[in-house]
Structure formats: structure tokens, C-alpha cells
Amino acid sequence: MPPPNTFPYTMCDDIFEQKNMFLDHVLAERRSYRMFKGEVPPKDDIHRILHAGLLAPFAAAAIGTPQDYFRRFFVMTIGSKSMKSVIPLVMNEVNTMADDIDQKMEKSPELRAQAISFVQRLGRIKQLGTVPGIGTAPYYIIVAERRGFPSIGLQSLAHCMENMWLKATALELGFQLVSITSQMSDNPEFCRILGIAMGEWDLMGCAVGYPQEELSPSIRPPVDTLTRWLE
Ligand SMILES: Cc1cc2nc3c(=O)[nH]c(=O)nc-3n(C[C@H](O)[C@H](O)[C@H](O)COP(=O)(O)O)c2cc1C
Fold first, then answer.
1. Is the pTM of this model over 0.90?
2. In this predicted model, what pLDDT tens digit does every residue of 66-96 receive, in sequence order?
3. Mutation pick for ligand 1 pocket among 141, 175, 177 (CB with most ligand atoms within 8 Å)
């Protein structure tokens, strides 16, 4: 005969192990997808992803108690008027950034060494004539976070994006960060399209869709090789 209470304890242990097993799977399967199928995922999936983003932490002390909510979501679908309007705006931003860094690099060899791979990436985007993730996936999602004081919106947005990324992974959708979006927060036309006041919000973006092909789970070095337990 099993001792009394064995059954409930075993069930708790099972649920604990299952929760951790599923979470570990999702964490390992989260990857950057950059090639998407044309098929558009259902709006309900996007809704669930946004809800995950809403559950992410926010910088309560920096935000204070604004009357309106401090986080906003904007969803653009491929082929929509809004997506067609933002593509050239973001491309312009890429060109401006590339020219600006080029000029600065001419004066600073240290910056040249530091920025070389970023500049190469901007060069590839210029060659492609399109920003990866905007118009290359069924959805381009932008999240806005009120800047607050000290301005800490981008950190909150990183948490928000990670929650959305993990949820997209659990829904077996591909997710790509579109970090150039953060450069658009002071672009008047971009902010006008979103309907937000320029300068008050930080922005971050991502692309979501069905991945063209599945990627293997993340490969990382053993965590012990990177960890020091301090006395
Ligand atoms: C702050 C930040 C910005 C990023 N920006 C982009 C981006 O604009 N486009 C992109 O394709 N990936 C972007 N990534 C994704 C990284 O390139 C990716 O996470 C990394 O190469 C590891 O690959 P994995 O996500 O498949 O594990 C970004 C990641 C971080 C943390």
C-alpha cells in the first residue's frame, strides 16, 4: 500500500516537472526566423502574442501613474496601406544612419573597427532595397512604451519582446526582431501613422509568420564555462 498523501504529492511533482520541461523546450526552441511563408497566421494567434507582451514587466517607478496606459501595440499586415507607407520611411532611416556612420568612421579608425559588421549589415539592407522583417513577413508588429523618467522604455520593450517571442515559439510561429524600429521613434511621419505623439514613446518591432523551414534548437556553450560563483 502506498503511504497516505503519496498521490497528491506525486501529482504536484509531475506538474512541476511538466511545467519546467515545457518551459525549457520553448526557451531552447526560440530562434530568429528570417524567412516566412506567404500564408497569414490567424489574428487570434497575434492576439495571444500581444497578450503575452502585455504580461511583461514594466518600469513602474519611471512611468509613474500616467492617465493613459503606457504600452501600445500596432499590427500591420502585409500589403496593407500602413505597411506600404512605413517601408520607404524605414529605408530612408537606414540610408541616413549608413551615411552618418560613414562620415563618423572617416574621422575615427576606432569607430570603423567597432562598427564594421553593423555597417556591412546596413549595406546589405541598402542593396536589398528592403528592411528584413518589414514586408517580408505577414505581420510587422510595433510596440510602443512611454519613455518615462529616467527614459527606460527600451529596456521594458526588450522584456515585452521576449515574452512575445516565447509565445510565438509556443504557437509554432516564426519571430524576427526588427530593431531598426527603435530608430523611428523620432520620425514625425512614422509616429503620425501610428497615431502617437513624437518623442514621448520608445519603439521596438518584430515580424511574425509561419517559418519557411524549422531551425534547430539554440546551441550555447555549457553555462558552467561562463559562470563564476563568487565567495
Ligand atoms: C537587441 C537585439 C536586436 C536584434 N535585432 C535584430 C534585427 O534587427 N534583425 C534580426 O534579424 N535579428 C535581430 N536580433 C536577433 C539576433 O541576431 C539573434 O537573437 C542572435 O543572432 C541569436 O540567434 P537566435 O535568436 O536564433 O538564438 C536582435 C537581437 C537582439 C538581442
1. yes
2. 778 899 999 999 999 999 999 999 999 999 9
3. 177
Nearest partner of 186 among 149, 147, 159, judged by Cα: 147
Cell reading at 126? 541598402
Nearest Cα residue to atom 29 of ligand 1: 177
Q: Report how far ligand 1's centroid is from the alpha carbon of 174 (Å).
A: 13
User: Residues near 219 by Cβ (< 8 Å), separated by ≥ 6?
Assistant: none
- Residue 110 CA: distances (Å) to CA of 55, 113, 121, 122: 41, 5, 18, 19
Residue 35 and residue 46: Cα distance in Å, rounded?
18
Nearest-CA residue for atom 16 of ligand 1: 32
CA–CA dist 180, 93 (Å, integer): 8
Q: Among 36, 166, 179, which residue has the most ligand 1 atoms within 8 Å of its CB, making it the best to mutate?
A: 179
Question: What domains does the chain contain, in order, with CATH numbers?
Answer: 69-209 (3.40.109.10)
